Amino acid sequence: MTDLLFLPDLTAIEPPQENETDMMFKVEANQPPERCPKCGFDKLYKRSSRQQLIMDLPIRLKRVGLQMNRRRYKCRECGSTFWERLISIDEKRSMTKRLLKSIEEQSMSKTFVEVAESIGVDEKTVRNIFKDYVAFKEQEYQFETPKWLGIDEIHIIRKPRLVLTNVERRTIFDIKPNRNKETVIQRLTEISDRTYIEYVTMDMWKPYKDAVNIVLPHAKVVVDKFHVVRMANQALDSVRKALKAKTSAKERRTLLRERFILLKRKHDLNERKAFLLDTWLGSLPDLKEAYELKEEFYCIWDTDDPEEGSIRYSQWRHRCIASNSKDAYKDLVRAVDNWQDEIFNYFDKRLTNAYTESINSIIRQVERMGRGYSFEALRAKMLFNENLHKKRKPRFNQTAFNKAMLFDFNSWHEVTDHDITDNFGVDFSTLIKRLEKGDL
Fold first, then answer.
1. What's the DSSP call for residue 5?
2. Three-state DSSP class for 125?
3. Residue 399 DSSP symbol
4. CB 278: neighbour CB atoms within 10 A?
5. What are the counts of helices (DSSP H) followed by strands (DSSP E) for the chain?
6. I want to staple 120 with a disulfide (CB 3.0 to 4.6 A). Which of 63, 102, 129, 309 is the partner?
């Protein structure tokens, strides 16, 4: 029976009892305690015993329980009493330590119900183990501080949550329950080597900017280009809707699916769609003007020269203010005027937060699956699942293969930062694949 259990301090004393789903082993400790854990005296006697059920890893897909007659001992010297000490058992959970480790790992990628049913414990037990494990991981994990930090939000359980990203490594650095200014300040303050951060990308959300200016005054703020050009699309769409409301039913039929064509860049259209576009713009001069303003605004970001980009914007702004579409584009003009330095800092490194946008839509799919995760659980499953982490392995260390050699001070290898595996956080591409499969 011991061959089935492989536990160093327990022995099966009878063949296991089995049914369709479970196995039960009767076990006992291999050896009685030799000394009192309190005073070290070696004169002990049995005081009492009790029946205890200890859960273990499944065997042959069957859940395993260990039924043990747990003995209690008393010390003849100091009078203290204690139960048999078992190194393979987690006393808090009444399960083997290997089962506890398995639950910790499984709860990162499976639902609590699935884990509980597969091993034969209560779902609440799995939740509590997960909670303790996450608290431990929260202290253990220190992701590498990004040189280019992204500040954005992802929508989890119907609320915008703060997400910090490593833009250079395309990983998630942290997720917080809200995006309030105080939350941002607190989290940035917790980064011990925050002077390493050179750039911070964000959308045009003033609390982000204020927080960065307070905690990271040395870092250069970059407004995400996609948040800016999206406003140009929104302006064009408002013109389209206004014109469409004034057209006849017949004319509206000719504009079928026009929104998707109008919002695309002209050079991305195939021949048929380009023909449709030219037809619409030829018959609707106001739409043509708004469309050309949108295309010209996009062209600002096509150059690599920041000075050229600034000139293009000045020219675009002048034309926009003089056009019939100036009311539709007024919010965009105001935004660029108010955030001009931060917006045009984009040309330094061409940094964006584009990767968080893809995660938002997929997380919403997970929420619709009705798994009932709390924010804390979903955050932990994303941040602390080692299978999602992007790591840089240490350099090749020749001395690791020279253990048989005598110690030589001339060949001693000093451990440096490069000998430690760098952990950059949760890899975007890996997370997206796991979310698409529903494995989170």
1. H
2. helix
3. G
4. 13
5. 18, 15
6. 63
Assigned token pair, 245: 């409301």
Query: What is the number of structural domains in the chain?
Result: 2
Single-letter residue type at 239: V
Query: Rounded to whole angstroms, how far apart are CA atoms 217 and 223?
Result: 16
Residues 145-161: tens digit of each pLDDT: 999 999 998 888 888 89
Whether 113 and 232 map to the same domain: the answer is: no
Q: Is 15 exposed, middle or buried (0-12, 13-18, 19+ CB in 10 A)?
A: exposed
> What number of other Cβ atoms are within 10 A of residue 237's Cβ?
16
Give CA–CA dist 247/259, Å, rounded: 15
- Rounded to the nearest angstrom, the gap between the alpha carbon of residue 316 and the centroid of all alpha carbons in its chain is 39
Does 344 fall in a domain?
Answer: yes
Strand, helix or coil for residue 83: strand
In a domain, 383, yes or no: no
Q: Residue 331 is encoded by which pair of tokens? A: 């919010």
Using CB atoms within 10 A of its CB, is residue 168 exposed (0-12), middle (13-18) or buried (19+)?
A: middle
Show the domain range for 289: 225-349
